[in-house]
Write a structure and sequence with these properties.
mainly alpha, 0% strand, single chain, 141 residues
């Protein structure tokens, strides 16, 4: 049986999958203050999230990161599917980076100290887009 991943995808899938799984697991049980901080930053960028209670948002974020991390780690999930999920998730994170005041130096894309934790997620966007492009342009012979 042939798995739906290529050998060249194993290392980036392991790295991003382990990173996201760890991040999601660390958010499973957060205190009210941490949940409020996570929620506050997200709802400032994406106002529709203001309708979701902070604790619920933190649980959903945790579940999403765990699910995406597991999808990347499990070789039965096609790379194009895992890559699309990774690109979508990291795009949302970078949207927060670009739209949140104080994350970037004035008139620049360069991050401030406060923006570095979000700006570094650009690598996940690159990996996700790379997976999708690689799978869509692959010769299927």
């Amino acid at each position: 049986m042939r798995l739906p991943i290529e050998l060249r995808h194993v290392a980036p899938r392991l790295a991003t999958g382990a990173f996201l799984l760890n991040s999601g697991l660390s958010k499973r049980v957060v205190d009210e203050e941490t949940a409020a901080q996570l929620h506050g930053m997200a709802k400032n960028t994406y106002p529709f999230l203001g309708k979701v209670p902070a604790a619920t948002f933190a649980r959903l974020l945790s579940a999403g990161e765990i699910t995406l991390g597991a999808a990347l780690l499990l070789p039965v999930v096609p790379t194009v599917v895992a890559g699309a999920g990774l690109a979508a998730f990291s795009s949302a994170l970078l949207g927060m980076y670009l739209r949140t005041p104080g994350m970037r130096e004035e008139g620049s894309l360069r991050p401030t100290q406060q923006g570095t934790p979000l700006a570094k997620d650009v690598w996940m966007l690159g990996v996700g887009i790379g997976f999708v492009v690689d799978e869509m342009t692959r010769d299927r012979r």
